[in-house]
Amino acid sequence: MLSAASESSKRNPSASNIVAAPWRRPYRRRVPVRFTILGSGSSGNCAYLETDETRLLIDAGFSGRQIRQRLASISRAPESLHGILITHEHSDHVQGLSTIAAKLNIPVYCNRHTAQAIEEQLGLKLEWRLFATGSTFEVGDVAVDTFSVPHDAWDPVGFLLRTAAGNIGILTDLGHATRLVIERVRESNILLLEANHDLKLLQEDTKRPWSTKQRILGRHGHLSNEAAAGVAEEVVTDRLRQLYLGHLSRDCNSPELAHATVHSRLQRLGATHVNVVTAAQDSPCATLSL
Question: What is the pLDDT of residue 18?
Fold first, then answer.
């Protein structure tokens, strides 16, 4: 459980806004929980979660205008948001904060290192709600489990969002899946999993220098289609129903390649109950009701 120390409150981001981690309360299902991936790819990532009491964005990697338009496509508006959860500070996950969070005073939930990096990048202070990586906290009727992932950011995290209707795992940027990562997302009913690149297409790509390819292929880079299939194989259970493949590279992957690689692995396992969907960069996925 986290607590705010008076001495630490003198430092920025404000420690007075540290998120407490109360004991999980039992849930009572009243209305369907709705989850929409507003877009996912190397240029931007953002998802929307709506429960009976709570409306959240997970990352804000599009412009404020794009986020507003994509929410409008599902008859929602950013003014109704109760918070924005941030996995890490890279621009394809935070670029919309300066217009959405800052102008509307929407609370932003992230760890301290990520908040500090965002403040340096965007040159502004936001309504921070800080958590310690590995902790659990609540936003309305959503319990948020946080866990560390291996990626080349200051303190990147994944999320397991626990709702009355089921659990949603968020795993968008990582170079490899640690045992901790596998354990944390194995409880997912819905999982957003990175499938960034096809190894052959990346190796043959002429736009990226070798140093960039090394970073992508490294243990703190991004998952290939084959690596994503391996993660899916390790985390699949009878309760996993929907698997979204996200963060696809425009140049070094295709929806068809990503889907075929992961889907065929699950089929060989006999996991025919899992619906595999490839998320797009340019348009939202269909809203999923739990």
Answer: 67
Quote the distance between the C-alpha of residue 6 and its chain's center: 31
Average pLDDT, the chain: 92
The domain locations on the chain are 33-283
User: If you write DSSP's letter for every residue of 61-130 in order, what string do you get?
Assistant: -S-HHHHHHHHHTTT--GGG--EEE-S---HHHHGGGGTTHHHHT--EEE-HHHHHHHHHHH-----EEE
Residues facing residue 160 across a β-bridge: 145, 169
**pTM exceeding the 0.85 threshold for the entire prediction:** yes
CATH number of 33-283: 3.60.15.10
Q: Cβ(83)–Cβ(108) under 8 Å?
A: yes
Residue 96 near residue 61 (C-beta atoms within 8 A): yes
Q: Are strands 34-41 and 44-50 parallel, antiparallel or unpaired?
A: antiparallel
Report the alpha-carbon distance of residue 196 to residue 216 in Å, rounded. 9
Distances (CA, A) of 56 to 109, 112, 140, 182, 271: 10, 20, 10, 24, 30
DSSP, res 263: H
Residue with tokens 């043959």, as numbered in its chain: 204
- Predicted confidence (pLDDT) per residue in 26-38, tens digit: 545 467 899 999 9
For position 48, what pLDDT does the model report? 99
* Sheet strand arrangement including 44-50: 128-130, 108-110, 83-85, 55-58, 44-50, 34-41, 288-289
